[in-house]
Description:
Glutamine Phosphoribosylpyrophosphate, subunit 1, domain 1; eight-stranded mixed β-sheet; Glycosylasparaginase
Amino acid sequence: xxxxxxxxxxxxxxxxxxxxxxxxxxxxxxxxxxxxxxxxxxxxxxxxxxxxxxxxxxxxxxxxxxxxxxxxxxxxxxxxxxxxxxxxxxxxxxxxxxxxxxxxxxxxxxxxxxxxxxxxxxxxxxxxxxxxxxxxxxxxxxxxxxxxxxxxxxxxxxxxxxxxxxxxxxxxxxxxxxxxxxxxxxxxxxxxxxxxxxxxxxxxxxxxxxxxxxxxxxxxxxxxxxxxxxxxxxxxxxxxxxxxxxxxxxxxxxxxxxxxxxxxxxxxxxxxxxxxxxxxxxxxxxxxxxxxxxxxxxxxxxxxxxxxxxxxxxxxxxxxxxxxxxxxxxxxxxxxxxxxxx
Length: 342
Ligand code: ASP
């Protein structure tokens, strides 16, 4: 299983310029990955590298970005060793694994499911909401009924490992979403919390296909041990994900409440519309979170990734430790993001 700090097969080099392979070049505030028209996919965290394989299989054969992002994020959704997404995700405080996901295409079509249980691939349900209903969001029992009516099979998503971690957590029931900051504020010795620093991490993925069209997907089991019914930013169009095919796309990971407050992904896209490079736009959005809550911002993690219409990519986080995975004709890398705090 990959962890954020292992960066399997990837050299930990802090500079995008050094990471850039031949024929690509670093530019101020964004890594130039592909000329417009060349496919590129990027996703949150190091486990995005594996997800990118699924997306790349579609993109490399001339497929649509929408199909690519769906195929890509389905990989961690089905991976039971990933305790922050889909099957195997850590449950809420009552022991229910509830999933949030959304998807958006190049025509501003979007679909979302919130608090969905017992379905391994919420992203595919979100896509069906987009394509088969007049609505954008289905939640809870209604989303489940819609999925079952469309042929999805029920599966218990709570694995033995996640059940064990939850039972351990129940001993103290310490609800504290202010974690997920490895090596920094989180101290396993003084503040043990089963599930620990890996108790939240969403996969957000954005991609551009060979036709220059952009789509995105975002899927998560949300904050571990959250209140039952809690929905984060990930299925909220504009917060966890936004795509504007004229400008670019962005996605988020981290404490969703903070991302929703600033409508983070939409903000990143609008900043790119104003001319900022992807990394600069992500940085500005992170700074907005700091401005509106300087003290709180020290205790949480939030991260953004972005892709513009020129095929440039970037990411930025509040705390160190965030990375994003990029795949194009020229690169297949996990890139450690710069962060506001050091
Ligand atoms: N954004 C997710 C949520 O708030 C969690 C995460 O990405 O870590 O549900």
